[in-house]
Structures are given as structure tokens and as C-alpha cells.
Fold this protein.
Amino acid sequence: MAFSSGNSGGPMADINVTPLVDVMLVLLIIFIITAPLMSHKVKVELPETNFQPNKDELDKRFGPITIAVKEDGSLYWNDEPVTKEVLESRLSSAAQQTPQPPLNLRGDRTTKMRTINEVTKIAQSQGMLDIGFVSTKQKGQ
């Protein structure tokens, strides 16, 4: 134990940090030397390809399907007017695609829920799994 040489004659209360600094510097040097060895990288040459998918086909196949229902009950498949029979056949073929495209159902503000419910049941009966309802956010919220 270290004793002070002052007039008080009691033990010294200061901490000797020199050994702590020595140990920290040794650890720092060890980490500086070993860090580059830990990041060993294996270089792999990947094959190249010249495949360029047609953007129109990708948009038609993987894009969401939008069905709009007007107040009078008229149906629109991606802004194209369709009948219920055509809608059923198109939903049937869309349900068999892999991956299955999402279905967005839009209705007018004044469209009866009964009509939207009928379209939802048609979509479910044809095998559509991802059916969403599109709405607009009220102003001020």
C-alpha cells in the first residue's frame, strides 16, 4: 500500500491508472493486428446474363388488378368495362397465376355495399386470396 509523504500521514486515496492504460494499449494493438484477419473474403466470379424481361409483360402479369364498381352496378377491370361473366372468367385465370396478383376493389361513394359484397364473393369463389378495398382519406385527418 502506498503512503503519502505529506503531513497528514494517512493512506493515499488516488487510483494509479498507469497499469490500466498499459493493458488498454496492449489490447488495442492486439485488436488492430487481428481485425484484418477476421474479414477474410472469398472472391467469386458470378456468371453474366443477357436476359432482359419485357416490361409490358411484367406489368400485366404482376401488377395489381383493379376492379371498379359504379353506383349503377357497372364493373370495370383495370378501367375497361366488363360484365359479371367476363369478370368471373378473368378472375378464374388470374387466380391460377403464380404468384397471384393482388386484387384492389374500388367502389363509388354511393355504391351499395350489397354490390361490392357480390363482387367480393365472386372473387373469393374464383380463388382470389389477396383482396383489398381502396378508399380515399378524408381531408383534415
Summary: The longest helix spans residues 18-38. The mean pLDDT is 83.
